[in-house]
Amino acid sequence: MPIQTASASAGEARALSNSIRTQYVEEYLDAAMTERVYDQIAQPFPDNSEMIRGSSIQVEFLSDMAPGVTAISEVADITPQALRDATASLTPTSRGEVLQASELLLIQAFTNYGKARIQKIGKNAMESIDLLAQAAANQGTHLEAAAVRASLDAGTTSHNADDAVFEKAWIRFLSNKVPDFNQMMNIGATTFVAITHPAVYSDIIRTGNVQSIMQYQKAEILFNHELGALSAFRLVVSPWAKAFYGAGADHGTDVVATSLKAASNALAKTVTLSVSTHLDSGLGAWWSVGTEETGNTFFPQNERVKWVSNTTSIVTFVGEGPNGGFRFDHTTSDVVRNADSVYTIVFGGPESLAKAYAPDVGEFGMLVGPRRHGSLDQFDSLGWKFYGGYGITSDNRILRAEVSVRSEA
Q: Rounded distance, CA 169 to CA 175, Å?
């Protein structure tokens, strides 16, 4: 049952004391600034405070001049060159969420709900804001894939990640003169980043040249998962990296492709499906729940579960929620599939994304509240808000690889 117990419309809200608010802000920032994944390849606009004022931000580009290849004439003037111009745009948006509790709940709660909800608010802000960066990073037209997304097969070696895709990315980035992190600081060798999921990392270190080199030269890197870079790319390995759950090839012959027969809430550990065919096989490393992401429209509440058992159409599973159940609520429109998932590697540098944000709200959002409201100050609300956005201004500065993973074969 939901913890929120009342509407925020009753009465006028008032803030708590400054000492309590300062403590809450610190807790919020600790949670909001951790695990940021795609934000690190985003560069704020230099004049961000002015650019954010418009409903959209336009970035202008000028073409290079053609190299001079003729001697200067002694009898005729030089013909001036004409520069071409182009534009790209970024549209800022807003995000915000709130939790509300009754005063009685805070008084009677045996758990430290007051502190825990601040951390949940901060984590929610982090995930929500970084999802804006994630969506921008994974919607570019610069793509490397062995097959279309729906055909990527976990059991096909050529569809899995290896060192070759890193070499391709390195060649493309150098050819495109993409700014790198060390160039920005004028130190060291060329360095970019590659953001990916642990399942992809596992394939990289256990295949091809990478495995051979680590086995024969420094095996502890292999066994301790200490590979930090490959080619010119520092590896950023995170479970928050984008994966298209169940969007790949069908898994074997016992295909599960159905929908929920009844809505299911967050933390639930069982679910009722519309059909019972093939459910008892448990086939597939994971089952995806949500809306299949076939294009550039993403559904952040998609999640995946591991089949444990079933009785006809009722399936018991292990999920990614805090208690081993669902993270989110799901409706009867959500589809359940046991198809292979498709994982991404986003190759980028410090200027692969551009971002803008409202300075008075902050780069990582702002804590709002806690506020007491109601005729008796009996309700307590706490939330966060953010104004800003992310976008790709130049497609040649970012590359996305889509791969399957051997762990799902």
A: 10
